[in-house]
Write a structure and sequence with these properties.
The protein is an all-alpha fold and about 475 residues long. It has helices at about 10-40, 45-50, 50-75, 75-95, 100-130, 130-160, 165-170, 170-185, 200-225, 230-250, 265-295, 300-305, 310-330, 330-350, 355-385, 390-420, 425-450. It is globular.
């Protein structure tokens, strides 16, 4: 690998990357708490303001695989620095916007830049550290990511209450500048030598059409009505685009989507793990605050405090889970993670209006522990299962499936609530039973897939000895 910039201090490189990745993750959740104040000032209703979330997720999902491929072809450091700069500019412009259209536009650019921050960041950190420390370093990175996802709603509420909704975006600017400076000085280039491959433009165009259509259907299909003409037309278009994408990608020389990776049990297992995690935490993290606020009658500050058993355990255990994966491989860590998630869901399926607080805290803490065991190690497993020069594509594919699985989880949760006749608790219980069942199935599936991972071939960087 080339080293245009010497990695004089890999820990400072990790710090810079973690700042950028943290901001990308916190931006995923912090905007939610700003929507009421934002809607009031811009004179739009909450349903219109939801497009600020949808636009971000659509752009993020559409560009995730492309970002990984571009990073592999043109340099992870180079693309990371450009994405950080774009994220800073988009955040500044969003904070200064005075219309919904402008905000949606800048949120799209934030989503595009965050696709790079999510994918290139892990590959950069994996390259900066040797094999014995890689799991720990990636665990620290994902600890920062988990912290960003977790504190987003709390931080958003505080910023809106004290400084106004614009600072939800403006605060990104000085922080991303610090991360950009650290990455400029300490991140080395990890792009492979020129292989003569070109970017798959037909695949990029089709993927940029297909993924937003599916995200749009999953997020808004239930609201619009699954049998409505709009949803049926979008479904037909999304299916046709998907079929055409698969057909094209099987015939180009250097495809953007490497469907052959799915023939590797370790990579398929890693994708199932990260997808299963998103399928779990997206609905759970939506419903847990609702239970605390609407069923238990707690105020916003108390809800935030009672979510700390999940978020704090996630942040504290992620580095430990990374070290465990370094020593024992990713397989036992991932299996333990889904066992913990299943236990958490089963406990939450028994919640009632007066459940004891120790029971609630235990269930929430088990979710944080399971989350920590899966988030970083699933990424390590994905990277370890493919050749080093394709790490960006592997990250893009796995994180795209992560986002889509989260959208599927939310869509199924909405469907369960529509069918539940007993109010919030009935829908909550049904969702938790579903999440427990899916977690149990994933324990069995990962046990088979990761158990079949072959030993790495001599000189093959695709599968180090601890890949499974």
């Amino acid at each position: 690998m080339s080293s245009a910039v010497p990695a004089s201090n890999p820990w400072l490189a990790l710090t810079g990357v973690a700042i950028a990745s943290f901001l990308g993750c916190i931006d995923f959740t912090i905007v939610n708490t700003a929507l009421p104040a934002l809607s009031q000032e811009l004179h739009i209703d909450l349903q219109q303001s939801q497009w600020l979330i949808t636009a971000f997720v659509m752009a993020l999902s559409a560009f995730m695989v492309s970002a990984g491929r571009l990073a592999d072809l043109f340099g992870r450091r180079r693309l990371m620095l450009l994405a950080m700069l774009l994220f800073g500019v988009a955040s500044l412009a969003a904070g200064l916007s005075h219309s919904l259209a402008a905000l949606v536009f800048w949120r799209v650019l934030q989503g595009l830049s965050c696709a790079v921050l999510y994918t290139a960041s892990t590959a950069i950190v994996g390259d900066a550290f040797d094999e014995s420390r890689r799991g720990r370093a990636i665990g620290l990175l994902f600890s920062a990511n988990g912290l960003g996802l977790a504190i987003g709603p709390v931080a958003g509420g505080l910023l809106v209450a004290t400084l106004g909704w614009r600072w939800v975006f403006l605060l990104n600017v000085p922080l991303i500048a610090i991360g950009l400076l650290l990455c400029w000085q300490h991140v080395r280039e990890s792009a492979p030598a020129d292989t003569g491959q070109r970017l798959d433009l037909p695949g990029l165009a089709l993927l940029s059409l297909t993924l937003p259509l599916w995200v749009l259907l999953l997020v808004h299909g239930g609201t619009w009505g699954w049998s409505s003409p709009v949803v049926l037309a979008l479904s037909a278009l999304a299916l046709a685009a998907l079929v055409l994408l698969v057909w094209v990608e099987q015939r180009v020389t250097a495809p953007l989507l490497r469907f052959d990776f799915l023939a590797r049990p370790a990579f398929t297992g890693a994708c199932l793990a990260t997808g299963g995690l998103a399928f779990f935490y997206c609905p759970a993290f939506l419903l847990m605050p609702l239970y605390l606020a609407e069923v238990r009658g707690l105020d916003s500050a108390s809800v935030g405090l009672l979510l700390l058993p999940t978020t704090a355990v996630l942040a504290l255990l992620s580095p430990w889970a990374g070290r465990w994966a370094d020593r024992r491989g990713t397989r036992p860590v991932l299996l333990a993670g889904f066992v913990l998630l299943a236990a958490s869901a089963l406990l939450q399926a028994g919640f009632v209006a007066d459940s004891s607080w120790p029971l609630v805290i235990t269930a929430f803490a088990l979710m944080g522990a399971g989350w920590a065991c899966i988030l970083g190690p699933s990424t390590v497993a994905a990277i370890a299962s493919v050749p080093a020069q394709d790490a960006g594509v592997a990250m893009g594919m796995s994180w795209t499936l992560h986002n889509l699985a989260g959208a599927v989880g939310l869509a199924l949760t909405a469907a369960l609530f529509q069918r539940a006749g007993g109010g919030l608790l009935a829908g909550y219980h049904g969702t938790m039973v579903l999440l427990a069942a899916v977690s149990a199935v994933l324990v069995l599936a990962l046990g088979v897939l990761l158990g079949r991972t072959p030993a790495p071939a001599r000189g093959d960087p695709a599968q180090p000895a601890d890949a499974s």
